[in-house]
């Protein structure tokens, strides 16, 4: 019975890490960029918990900038600065950094 409890705790810890790795590792600009906009995004921290992320628009030669605020567990809320081309970039988005965002090479 004791071994089942230990296994269950390990499984819960691994699942929590996979879903919210920033809780342990902290928020990294590359992981946040991947979470916000995929591979063609660059994020820079301006002050603790406040970031600016430029999402490159592949249809035009420009990009869209989001002001991003990070919260606990690596979750974030973003608001687009200025107009979005063709309505393809929502005014507000939110999400959480997950393990794929952390390990992605792009």
Distance between the termini: 44 Å
Rg, rounded, reads 16 Å
Tell me the fraction of residues in β-strands, as a range.
25-35%
What characterizes the major β-sheet?
A: 5 strands, antiparallel
Give the tally of structural domains: 1
Mean pLDDT score: 83
| H/E element sequence | HHHEEEEEH
Helix percent band: 25-40%
Main sheet strand line-up: 1-2-3-4-5
Helical stretch tally: 4
Structural class: alpha+beta
Low-confidence stretches: none
How many β-strands, per DSSP? 5
- Shape annotation: elongated
Keywords:
106 residues; alpha+beta
Task: Write structural notes for this entry.
The protein is α+β, with helices and mostly antiparallel strands and 106 residues long. It has one domain (2-103). Helix content is 34%, strand content 32%. The protein is built from four helices and five strands, in the order H-H-H-E-E-E-E-E-H. The chain has a five-stranded antiparallel sheet, covered by helices on one side. Strand 3 and strand 4 (75-81) form a beta hairpin. The longest helix is centred in the N-terminal third of the chain and has 18 residues, at 2-19. It is elongated, with a radius of gyration of 16 Å. The model has no long low-confidence stretch (mean pLDDT 83).
């Amino acid at each position: 019975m004791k071994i089942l409890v230990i296994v269950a705790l390990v499984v819960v810890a691994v699942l929590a890490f996979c879903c919210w790795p920033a809780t342990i590792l902290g928020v990294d600009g590359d992981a946040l960029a991947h979470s916000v906009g995929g591979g063609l995004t660059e994020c820079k921290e301006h002050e603790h918990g406040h970031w600016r992320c430029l999402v490159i628009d592949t249809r035009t030669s420009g990009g869209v900038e989001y002001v991003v605020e990070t919260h606990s567990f690596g979750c974030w809320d973003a608001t687009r600065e200025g107009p979005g081309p063709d309505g393809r970039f929502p005014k507000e988005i939110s999400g959480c950094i997950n393990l794929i965002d952390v390990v992605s090479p792009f």
